[in-house]
Specification:
Order of helices and strands: EHEEEEHEH
Strand content: 35-45%
Low-confidence stretches: none
Mean pLDDT: 95
Radius of gyration: 18 Å
Largest sheet: 4 strands, antiparallel
Helix content: 10-25%
Number of domains: 1
Number of strands: 6
Length: about 120
């Protein structure tokens, strides 16, 4: 049987979130420094990476690219994917079709066009 799991790879850089307007500055008291400090807080979390494919004859494994999606969708998809098994390796489109056919909500994919 073929099994699958997500592998988080980013975005990790705070700059990715800053450049897309997904941060705010907050002032907080630091007990260590004994003064107010300004921190950058991420307002929306997004995650992407790959799907690792197990159970193939490939000694190095197989990977399927997984675009950036909203973090809550990532966690739901990851949990579902951990139980997804097939007889042969499926494409991302085939995997997503099964995910949606199981009654899951549409995944919110990141689009770099400010229409989020």
């Amino acid at each position: 049987m073929i099994s699958y799991s997500t592998n988080f790879m980013g975005p990790i850089s705070l700059d990715w979130f800053r450049q897309r307007g997904l941060t705010v500055k907050e002032t907080r008291w630091s007990d260590i420094l004994k003064k107010d400090i300004t921190v950058t807080k991420i307002t929306q979390n997004w995650m992407g990476g790959r799907i690792d494919v197990y159970g193939t004859n490939n000694p190095y494994g197989q990977e399927i690219a997984l675009p950036i999606m909203h973090d809550s969708d990532w966690y739901k998809f990851s949990n579902w994917l951990n139980n997804y098994k097939t007889d042969c390796v499926k494409t991302l489109d085939e995997i997503l079709e099964s995910y949606y056919n199981d009654g899951n909500d549409k995944i919110r994919w990141w689009k770099d066009d400010k229409s989020q």
